[in-house]
Structures are given as C-alpha cells and as structure tokens.
Amino acid sequence: AAAHSKIPLPGDLYAPERRNSRGVEFGARLGLDRLLTDVKAETAGLGPIADATAEQANAAVTAARAGFASWSRTPATTRAAALEQAAHLLESRGARFIALLQAEGGKTLDDALSELREAVDFCRYYAAQGRKLFGVDAAMPGPTGESNTLAMRGRGVFVAISPWNFPLAIFLGQVTAALMAGNSVVAKPAEQTPRIAREAVALLHEAGIPKDALHLVAGDGRIGAALTAHADIAGVVFTGSTEVARSINRTLAAKDGPIVPLIAETGGINAMIADATALPEQVADDVVTSAFRSAGQRCSALRLLFVQEDVADRMIEMIAGAARELRIGDPCDVATHVGPVIDMEAKQRLEAHIARMTREARLHFAGHAPQGCFVAPHIFELKDAGQLTEEVFGPILHVVRYRAESLERVLATIERTGYGLTLGIHSRIDDTIEAIIDRLQIGNIYVNRNMIGAVVGVQPFGGNGLSGTGPKAGGPHYLARFATEQTVTINTAAAGGNAALLAGEE
Ligand code: UN1
C-alpha cells in the first residue's frame, strides 16, 4: 500500500462534468488497475475480517469509556485539526480508497470518486462546524450583574452503526461528527464492508485521533445489538433500515439508566412527480440517474415516478430508451454505469420483487445483466402506487400515471407512505412546485434535476417520519445533537467569591 500512497488525486477529478467523458483517462492516470489488483490480492490473502465476540464489543465500550476522559478535554481546535489531517490523508491516498471501494463495495469509478469526495467533505465540514460550535463557550445575553455562558461537550461513548452502501463516506461522517463533538466512539460497520472501515479507522488514528477514543468492532446485527444494549453508552448514530432503527430504539428504551439519544437516518419510498410541463429529455436523464445509478442502492434513490397522463407514454418510452444505454457489469471497468448489487441475498430479494411485479404490474423495460451478483434495471407501471409497500433497494423503477386534477391524490399517496426522505419535482409551473413543497414533510426535495448525491454543506441530507430522526448529516445542526449542553450562570454582582472567580478568568 505504501508504494502507492503518493499517487496524487487531482482536485479536478471530482468535477462532475468531467467524470464520465474522461473517466478512462483518469483511471489510467491514477494507476487504478494496478492498485485494484493489489487490493484484490491483499484481501484474498488476508481472508475475511473476523467478527468480534460480544466480550470484545463490551471491552471496546469499556476502553472507549476510559478514552472519553481525555478526548472530551482535548481542545476543540485540536480535535478539528485531527479531522482536517484525516481529510488530507484521504485525499493523498485517494486512489487506494477508490480501489477498496471498488473491490469490497462493488462501486463504479464514478460512484467511488463521489464517495471519496463526500468522505473528505464530511471531515472538513465537521471540523469547520466544530471549531464554531465547540471552540468557544457562547456568551448568552443576560441582565447586568450576571454572566451566562453555554458550553457544548461530548456525551460519552457513542456507538456508530453504518451501512454498506456508503462504507467510507457514511462511516466517516458518523464517526467524525461524534469525535468532533468530544465523544469517544465504538464503530460497527456493515458486515459486508469491514475492510474499508478498518483502513478508515487506521487513517483516523494516524491523523491524530487517540487509539482509546476510537474503536472498531466488526460483526453483524448481533454485535450492533450488544453495543446498543450496553449500559455505558451515551448515544447511538445509525444509518440503515427503518426496521433496525426501531429495534435500536426499543433496546435503548428498555435500559435502565440515562435516556440515550438515537440519531437515525433510514429508508424511503422516494417519489418523483413529472407533470406535462416538464422537459422530457431532462426527465429521462434524471430518472435514469436517480433510479438506476449506484444500482439503485442509495436511500435517496427514486422508487416511484408519478407521470402526468397526457405525456406518460412518451415519457416512459424515453426513460426506457435512456435506460437501454446503461452499461451493466464490472464496476472496475471505467465504462460501466451500473455495477453489482451488494450480495447474493440482495439479488435474490430484488429478483423476488421483480417476479412479483411481473405478475402484478405492466413491464415496460428490462435490461440485461451479466452472470453473477447483478440485477438488471427494470421499469414497471403500477395501476396504483399502493402496490409498492416497502423500500426496494435496487435498480427497479415503478411508474404511476396521474391526471392533472388528481395531483392532490398523488400528494396524499406520498404522504401515506409515512416516509419523508427525498422527492423529485419536474415542472415548469412555480405554483405547482411551491404547493408540493409546502404540502409534504420531506427532507430533501430536488426540483428539475436528479435526486441523488446530496453535497455536504450544500444539501444537508436526511428525512422525516419513517425516514429518520434528523438532524441532517452534512448540515449545520448535526453536530449539536452529539453533544451535551451546559449553561453556567455566575452572579457577578455579589461581593467576594463570584466576582473573584470571574476576575481570575481574565
Ligand atoms: C444513503 O444512501 O444511505 O444523497 C444515504 C445521496 C446520498 C445518500 C446517502 N447522500 O444520494
């Protein structure tokens, strides 16, 4: 690995308009082929990363509890500097992480690049926010004769449970937020992607996060359950399914002792509404991006497209036409648009859904997938949106026609799903757009563009209802939820002790 660590990752690599057309050139310049061969050989040689035992999970919490004492007292500027150093290391070893994302996460070059960018952004953004929030105790307004300050501090040991679909960005986003707020962390990555997590933790340690402040525990849901059930944890941050978030909530609620907060980002049955005033070419492009890129394995991905009846035939035809052009296959081939799904279990689940839809709905398009862990993009037309009752985490799009006068019914249908993560609107009528935005409690709404790939610090990401608790990741309110607040009021008018206490501060 060290031999490749000097490979530069030029900033312009991230420019989205340059990714597709020059992907081949970039891939060659980075030496990705060689790196990927190395990563594959290394991972094959090392075998799987062993799951932790429940005892090891408990020991990690105990060690993190000890690490909290000094990390929480480390100045916020030092904590922020460690995150900034991590961002720098990530960038300078970008190619290595891209190769890992491809080898372990099955990511296309395009997806791996944007994930790396997001991971770097999280580190820098939380460092910058943290300097503001934790750097100085805020002076509160108050009457004369009294000093009031509000300080924010770490809560204790935070458990971070992250998903396989963003094994670097979401993993690091959770962990760096918790650390920046002054917590120590026990991180439990998805069982499908432990190696990326392990390298990310090693990088954070190297960047200056003390070993005892950050612990990695590999394993499946049982290890996650053991961690959340531990008596000494002070918070949980989780990204994954609504069902698991509920079970974490129950575990936390059943414990004696302090009330432990859960910050959860979960699923969605994300919709897009395209009316007759939308630009068809743009809709086709944005639908294909939103529904099929990343093989639909984003919680932000489009699942349910409502198309106004007047334009539906033509629109569906154009979307199918655009989908036909997607190249599905080896994620390490830079020409690939859609890579594999995460594992055979996911493939089987998705194929069962495709089989059900083939019986119950009208098939408009089925792509071709190679042998192996691939699922071909599909487009089904439903009679009724109610036929889709759960989040389907793959490249399957469901289309429903609506009449202009029944837009209200469409909104009620979206509301009834109970989810509120992302929504797309394609329309050229401002009143329609505004009415939809006003009406729906949805976390991220995208107008006349695709609905994936929220940018840290620009499009704070996260949903409502069944989609999560908030606050939004990559947004200005996220870090505060990881911290405790302490208000100190000092009577400065009284003679003696209090005045002396303040004077002593100066
Ligand atoms: C997820 O897929 O778990 O906007 C959330 C996006 C990403 C989604 C991350 N930030 O597409």
Helix content: 40-55%
Distance between the termini: 50 Å
Give average pLDDT, whole number.
92
Q: How is the main sheet built?
A: 7 strands, mixed
Bound molecules: 2-aminohexanedioic acid
> Structural class, please?
alpha/beta
Quote the beta fraction: 15-25%
Enzyme class: oxidoreductase
GO biological process, one term: L-proline catabolic process to L-glutamate
EC number: 1.5.5.2, 1.2.1.88
Pathway: Amino-acid degradation; L-proline degradation into L-glutamate; L-glutamate from L-proline: step 2/2; Amino-acid degradation; L-proline degradation into L-glutamate; L-glutamate from L-proline: step 1/2
Can you characterise this structure?
This protein has helices at residues 16-19, 23-30, 32-46, 54-71, 76-92, 94-105, 109-135, 169-180, 194-207, 221-229, 242-254, 280-292, 309-324, 344-360, 407-416, 430-439, 497-505; strands spanning 138-140, 146-154, 157-161, 184-188, 214-216, 233-239, 262-265, 271-274, 304-308, 362-366, 378-381, 396-402, 419-420, 422-426, 444-447, 464-465, 483-491. With 506 residues, the protein is an alpha/beta fold. Strands 10-11-12-9-8-14-15 form a 7-stranded mixed β-sheet, sandwiched between helices. Strands 5-4-3-6-7 form a 5-stranded parallel β-sheet, with helices on both faces. It has a 3-stranded antiparallel β-sheet with strand order 1-2-17. Helix 4 packs across helix 10 (221-229). The radius of gyration is 24 Å and the shape is globular. It starts with 15 loop residues before the first helix and ends with a helix. Mean pLDDT is 92; it is low at 1-23. The structure holds 2-aminohexanedioic acid (UN1).
